[in-house]
């Protein structure tokens, strides 16, 4: 166990995707020790090798399956052994098996709920003893604009659940001085959002999104990373149970852009 420094320790799940890597890099830039928790340990190792560090700062690549409770418990044990504390959680890992209400696969629905909703709850549960002892901590859960606008039903339902979970965490853990907030991004071009979609389909969807966004552009991973970093900073110490939409104002419009 390394207790030589009081740098905050942050766990970022899904650390190697477009959002996760931007968040990881930003938190490392802010001076935190960062745990790169991802299903693909090879990608986590490669990302960690690219990020510059200050003296005494550490990155810890770690494999985790957010749909597996034992894997989550093992992650928390590993981080606790290495650092002796856990300050910040960023629940970013997600899967999306797209399907309409008419044709969704119940087994894939269950897998999505396990990773996208139950996993963040289990991770928070496992970290509670650290927060209780430290009397401090922060959680940022990555939701989606889909929680208000709708979309593929399993994904939208899971992200709406993330918002409810965030508010419940904020209430229950406030006595330990733990804050919990959600960040709901708009559409971000990435391997995750383009998976299973043709370039033509995605381009048309992106154009509709831009047209109904007051700021007139799509979100970027850096937009989300900057918001996460703020919510984990001392400047956000009195903000909890909030949902911050990082979507240029497009939360004001229905998903299909019917009002424009």
Strand order of the largest sheet: 3-2-1-4-5-6-7
Q: Into which percentage range does the β-strand content fall?
A: 5-15%
CATH class: Alpha Beta
In CATH, the architecture is 3-Layer(aba) Sandwich
The stretches of 5 or more residues where confidence is low (pLDDT under 50) are 256-260
Instruction: Let me know the largest β-sheet.
Output: 7 strands, parallel
Summarize the structure.
With 260 residues, this protein is α/β, with parallel strands linked by helices. The protein contains 9 helices and 7 strands; from the N terminus they run E-H-E-H-E-H-E-H-E-H-H-E-H-H-H-E.
Salient structural properties:
260 residues, alpha/beta, Rossmann fold, seven-stranded parallel sheet, 7 strands
Q: Can you give a write-up of this model?
A:
The chain is α/β, with parallel strands linked by helices. Helices cover 46% and strands 15% of the residues. It has helices at residues 18-29, 41-50, 69-83, 106-134, 146-149, 153-173, 191-194, 199-211, 221-231, and strands at residues 9-13, 33-38, 59-63, 88-91, 137-142, 178-185, 243-246. Strands 3-2-1-4-5-6-7 form a seven-stranded parallel β-sheet, with helices on both faces. Helix 1 crosses helix 9, helix 3 packs parallel to helix 4 (106-134) and helix 4 runs parallel beside helix 6 (153-173).
């Amino acid at each position: 166990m390394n207790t030589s420094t009081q740098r905050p320790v942050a766990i970022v799940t899904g650390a190697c995707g477009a959002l996760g890597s931007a968040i990881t890099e930003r938190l490392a830039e802010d001076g935190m020790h960062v745990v790169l928790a991802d299903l693909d340990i090879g990608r986590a190792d490669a990302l960690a090798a690219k990020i510059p560090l200050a003296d005494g700062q550490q990155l810890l690549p770690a494999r985790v399956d957010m749909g597996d409770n034992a894997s989550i418990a093992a992650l928390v044990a590993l981080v606790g052994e290495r650092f002796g504390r856990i300050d910040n959680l960023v629940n970013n890992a997600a899967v999306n098996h797209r399907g309409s209400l008419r044709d969704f696969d119940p087994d894939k629905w269950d897998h999505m709920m396990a990773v996208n909703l139950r996993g963040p709850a289990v991770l928070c549960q496992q970290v509670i003893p650290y927060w209780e002892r430290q009397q401090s901590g922060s959680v940022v859960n990555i939701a989606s604009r889909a929680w208000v606008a709708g979309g593929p039903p399993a994904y939208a339902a899971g992200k709406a659940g993330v918002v409810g979970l965030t508010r419940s965490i904020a209430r229950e853990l406030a006595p330990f001085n733990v804050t919990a907030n959600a960040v709901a991004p708009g559409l971000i071009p990435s391997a995750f959002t383009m998976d299973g979609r043709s370039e033509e389909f995605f381009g048309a969807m992106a154009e509709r999104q831009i047209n109904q966004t007051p700021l007139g552009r799509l979100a970027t991973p850096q937009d989300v990373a900057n918001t996460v970093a703020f919510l984990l900073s001392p400047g956000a110490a009195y903000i909890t149970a909030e949902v911050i939409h990082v979507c240029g104002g497009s939360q004001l419009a229905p998903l299909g852009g019917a009002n424009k």
